[in-house]
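As described in the Methods, two query proteins were run sequentially through the folding procedure within a single session, without resetting any intermediate state between them. The first query and its resulting C-alpha cells are shown here.
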Amino acid sequence: MRHELHFGDRVVRCFSARPSSLDEMFREAVDRHGERDAVVDHGIRWTYRDLARAVALTAAGLRSAGIVAGDRVAMLVSNRTEFIVSLYAIQRVRAIAVPISIREQAPGIAYMLGQCAARMLIHDTDLAGRIPRLKELPPQLQRVPLDGAGLWQAWHSVDHRAAGLGTAGVDSRAGPQGKPDPEAVCEDDPAVILYTSGTTGRPKGAMLSQLNIVHSAMHFESCMGLRAGDRSAMAVPASHVTGLIAVIVAMLRIGGAVVNVRQFKASSFLALVAAQKITHTLLVPSMYQLCLLDPNLSRHDLSTWRIGAYGGAPMPRSAIEALAVRLPRLTLMNAYGATETTSPATIMPPGMQSGNLDSVGQSVPTADIRVMDDAGREVPAGEIGELWIHGPMVVAGYWSNPQATAASFSGGYWRSGDIGSIDQSGFVRLFDRKKDMLSRGGYKIYSVEVEHALMAFPGVIEAAIVGRPCPVLGERVHAVVCVDAALARNPHHAREQLSAHCANRLADYKVPETWVIQADPLPRNANGKLLKRLLRPVPSETG
C-alpha cells in the first residue's frame, strides 16, 4: 500500500496495484475467467464471455442514444441479469449509473431523477406505473423499458443459447467499433450515484468513484478470502450498496458468479443455495433467522456454503450459536459500512466472530477509523464517541449538494453519526446512531444494547428501541418487537416474558417500560433501512 492524493486535497492509503476502473475490472475478469459462470438468473447461465457480448452491444445502444461520458443513467431494475448488463455498459461509455430501489415510489423517483439531471431511465416494464408524470421528469430524460425495443433491440434480438448470449466475433476489450476505447478513466470520477436512505429528509446522492468501488471490491476479496469460482446469492437488492458492491462487484473482482434471487423466501432460498452450490452470502440477520426456522433446513445439502456475512442489525447470540450447530462449515462474518463508505468499513476476521459477538469487526486494510468527541478530539481506546472514517473507499461527497457535503465531511473523514468505540485490539463496536441515543433522567441508553438483549430471546425476529416522551424524565424506553407466530398469539404474555428477560440482563433504567408486540415486520424505507421515526409514540399513547 502507499499514500496517494485524491479528490483534490485528500491523502489516502491505497492499494498500489489495482484496476483503474470498474470497466477495467470487468475486462480483466473476461480475459481471465471467460468461460466461468458470471450470472445465473432463473436457471439461465451467463459466462463472462456471454456477459461481455451483452455489455458491448448495450454500450453501443447507449452511444447511439446519445449517452456520453458523465451523463447520468438511472436504473429502476430488479435483481435480474439486465441490471448487471446495464451497470457495466454504462461504465463502458463512461457515464454514471444511478440505481434506484424498485420499492421507491413516484415522488422519490421524481426527486432523484431531477436532482441528478438524469439523461436516461432504464426500467423494468412492470414498473412503468411508478414512473412520475411527464411534467415531473427532467426535460432531457429518455425512458427505456427493458423489454421494449430501441436500446435493447440489438441484444434482445440475438439468438439466445441455453447458456445465454453467444460470443462470436466480440472482443471484450473493444468498444462498438471493435477498437479499444482510447479515453482513460479518471479514478476520482463518479461511477455510480447512490441515494442515501433519507430517513429524516431528502435523500442525498453519494458519489461512488472508480477508486472507491475498486478498493471496496479488493477489501471484500482480501478480508473474506474470496476466490475464483465463488458463487454468491444476491438476495438483497441490487440497487443497494450491499447488493451492488458486496455481491455484484465483489464477485466480478474474483471471477465469481452472481446468482440472482428475485424474492427472498427461506424455503426457496435454501433450495437455491443447495442447487447452485452457493459459497457466499451477505444477508441481514433476520434472513438467517428465517432460514433457521425453516423445517427443511436439515434436508438440504448446504456443504458448499462457506461465508455467511451480515450487517445492518445485530445478530442474536442464539442465532449465531444455532448456525454454528446446524451449519458448521459456515463462517459468520459481521460487517459494517454505509453508502458513504462504498459498503465495508469494517469486516470481522474469519474465525473471530464467536469471541467478539458485540463487535462489527476490524477496519478494512486501507481504512482509518477514529472515535471522536463532540469537540472533534480523538478519545482513548475503549472510550465512546462518534466514528469518523477515512480511506480510499470513502466518497468525496454528495452530488450537487455542497452544503450536505460540508456538513458530513471534515478533513477527508466522513462523520458517520454512529456512536461506537474501538478497543486496544482494533475491534470496533457500535452502540447507537447519535440521533437515536436515549436519555432517561440523565442516563444515556444506547438502543443497540437493549435490542441485542431482546434479539437473544427465542422467537424474536426484529426489535427496535425508541424514546417515549416523558415530561419528568425526558424519555422512557419503548420497544417495538416483531415476533414469531407462537409469541404473537399472546402479546400480553410475550410482554411479561420479554420484560423479565431484559430485567435479568440490563440495568433497570434500560428495561423497556412500554411495548408493541407484533407479527408484522418493522417499517423500512425503500433501501431497507429501519424507520425509527415511525415507531416513536406520542405522549398520549399507552403500551
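Immediately afterward, the second query was submitted; its sequence and C-alpha cells are:
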Amino acid sequence: MTTIPDLIQQAAAEAVRTIWGVTVAPADLTINETKKEFTGDFTLVTFPLTKHKLGSPEQIGEKLGAHLVASLELLSGYNVIKGFLNLSLSDTAWLGFVASAAQTPDFFRNTWGAGQTVVVEYCSPNTNKPLHLGHLRNIVLGYALREIMAANGFHAVPVCLFNDRGTNISKSMLAWQRAGLNETPEQAGVKGDKLVGNYYVKFAQQLKAEVAALQAEGLSPEAAEAQAPSNLAIRDMTVRWEAGDPDTRALWKTMNGWVYTAMEDTFRRLGVNFERYYYESDIYLKGKETVQEGLENGIFFQKPDGSIWVDLQPDGLDQKLLLRSYGTSVYITQDLALADEKYQAYRMDRSIHVVGNEQDYHFKVLFLIMQKLHKPFASGLYHLSYGMVELPTGKMKSREGTVVDADDLLDEMITQAAAETQQLGKTEGMDEHALQALYETLGIGALKYFLLKVDPRKRMVFDPNESIDMHGHTGPFIQSSYTRTASIRRKADTQALTAFSPDLPLEEPLLDAERQVMRTVMRYPQTLREAAETYNPALIANYAYELAKDYNRFYHEAPVLRTAFPHTSTFRLALSSLVGDTLRESLRLIGINVPERM
C-alpha cells in the first residue's frame, strides 16, 4: 500500500520541480518520523537540496513547507528547524490512515521479495547431545527470519541439517558400548537426546583421565591426546562406520533414532517445523565427489599423506583441510554437498545459514570455495552470525555437562510464568486447561522474546528472572498489552456502537498519545522490510515493545469506551483494534503466541 510518507515524498519532489524547476527523484528525499521533542509527525531533510543552489536549508524548508501545506489536504501545518522541515498531519489524514490500514489486507505484507526463493537453514543439531540454550537462540532466530522473509513476499523455505555422523557421534556410541548396560531411554526414564548426551559427557570424562595418565608417564599434552586409547577407538569406530560395518551402523541408527524422537518433541513445544530435514550421513559422500571435482580442476591440492586441501592464502585466509589422509570427511565436506542439494531442490536466490559466530571462519571459507567452483548460487549465500548465549554463571560446555537443557529451561520458564500470573491474581474463572495453556504461552513467549530482542550479532547473557517480568522489556509485557486490546473489543461487542467512519469528524482534537501510537503503527511496513533486508528479527521484537509502550500511554490518556463522544469512541476502538492486530502479527513473526486473556 502507498504510505503517507510515500505521498509526502512524491508531493515534495513535484513541489521542487514547480518552485525551482529542478527535477529530483522522490526516493532521494529523506522522510523520517519527527523526533518526539519537536512538533510534527514527519520530517523532510532539506540539506541535500542545497546542492541545487535553491537557497539555505531554512529557506528551502520554508518554501517547501508552505507549498506542501497548501497543496496537500493531509497536512495541517509545518515548522522549520535548521535543515529539517517538520510536517504535521491533519486529523482527517490520521482517521483515513486508521480506516485504510484496518481494511487493507496487505498492510502486514510487503511484496518486494515476490518471485524470489530463500532457504533458511537453522538449528543444525548434533545427535550426540540434547538441544540446549544455545540451540534455542539459533532456533528462534531462524524461525523468525523465515517468517519475516515470507511476510516480505519471498518463498521462504525452512530446512534443518542433522549432524548425525562423525567423531562426536562416535563418542556417545563408544561410551554406551563400554558401559555394557544396553540402556534405553525408557529404562533410564529420560528423553533419548538426554540419554545420549549423558554418554557423551562420560566419554569426555574417560578421555580426560586417560590423557592425564599418559602425561604423568612423561608424554606431552599433544602426544597424550593423540595416543589416548579412547581417541584411537573413536578413530577406528568412525572409519568402520564409513566402511559400512553392520554392527556399527546398527548402533548408530538406534541411538540416532532416540535423538530424533526427542528433538521432534522439543520442536513441537517450540512451535517449530521444517519443510525438509537433511542428514550429514546422506550427503557426506557427495561432498567427497565435490572435493574430487575441485582436485581434478586444480582448485584443490593433495598433500603427500593423501589429504586434500584448498589454499586460500592468496585470498587472505589459510589452507583448509577438505578430506583427511585416511579418507574420512570433515564438516566442510558435507557443507559443500549440502549447498548443491539445496540448489537442486529449490533453485534458491538466497541461502541463509543461521549459525553461531564461532563458525565465522568456516563460512568465509565455504563461501569462497563456492565462488572458486563457480556455483550459480554463490553470490546469494549469507551467514547470519549470531553471538553466543551465556548464563550469569558463565559459558556453557557440552562435554563437561554444564549446558542448560532446552526442555528443562522451557519447564522452568513455564513454572515461573505460572508463579508470576498467580501472584497478579487476574485469572479468576479460568479452568485448569486454560491456565496451563496461558502459562505455556507466557513462559515460552518470555524465553523467545528475551533471545530475540538483542541484535543477533551480539553476545548475550540470558537471565530467566528478568525475562518473565510483566512490566519490563519482555514478551509478557507485550502480550499483556495485546490482551488489553482484546478486552476492549469484547466489551465493545456488548455495546451498541456505530461503525467507525473516517468521514465523520471527531468531537475533540486528537491527543498527542493518539498521534504517537498511530505514527508507530504506520512504521510497521517499513520495519518489516528493514528486518528482512538486514536479516535482523530484533527489529521486529523491539518494534513490538515500542508499540506496546505507546499503546499503554494511549490506553491511560485516551479512554476508549468511556468517552461521551460517540465518534471519538468508535475511532479509538478502531485504533485500539489496529494496534492489537499489529502486536499480534509482530509477535507471530517472531514465533510468539498471544493470549486473549491474562
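The longest strand covers residues 155-162. We note this only descriptively and draw no conclusion about the first query from it.
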